[in-house]
Amino acid sequence: MKRDAVTGGGCLVSAAGVVGAVWLWGASDRTQRHLGNEFENNGQDFGAVLTELPFVFLAGAVVPAAVWGLGVWLLGRRRGRSESSRASEFHA
After folding, report:
1. Tell me, what's the pLDDT at 29?
2. Residues 81-88, mean pLDDT to the nearest whole number
3. I need a surface site. Which of 6, 52, 72, 74 has the fewest CB within 10 A?
4. Are 61 and 18 in contact (CB under 8 A)?
5. pLDDT greater than 90 at residue 78
6. How confident is the model at residue 1 (pLDDT cuts 50, 70, 90)?
7. CB atoms < 10 A from the CB of 65, how many?
8. What DSSP string runs through 24-44?
9. C-alpha separations of 43 from 25, 32, 53, 55, 77 in Å
10. What is the pLDDT of residues 13-58, one digit of tens each?
11. 85 φ/ψ angles, rounded to the nearest 5 degrees
């Protein structure tokens, strides 16, 4: 794969991870309780948003990008091994 395609793919995966992580976090029952979706906004706590949201955002960005990078690295190693084994077959 070309380097630009790998980089662009990693960025897209990271962006999708951020959107998915924030959406799942926002849709969870626990977050809804903190944001005041209980009866008459009982238990409303915006401190949870300020402390949790940055971690959710970072995890959503880093984890998919790390998995993408690991996959590209493993495929590159596998492809490199197959090319070196073919080259040794021709030299023998």
Report:
1. 85
2. 59
3. 74
4. yes
5. no
6. low
7. 19
8. HHHHSHHHHHHTT-SGGGTT-
9. 18, 10, 18, 22, 52
10. 999 999 999 999 989 888 887 777 666 666 677 787 888 889 999 9
11. -70, -35
**Residues 12/29, Cβ–Cβ less than 8 Å:** no
3-state class of 46 per DSSP? coil
- Judged by phi (left if over 0) then psi (alpha if -120 to 50, else beta), residue 36 lies in left
Say how far apart CA 61 and CA 69 lie, in whole Å.
12
How many residues belong to the chain?
Answer: 92
Token representation of residue 84? 């070196």
Written as six digits, the tokens of 7 are 């980089």
Residue 36: both structure tokens together: 């005041």
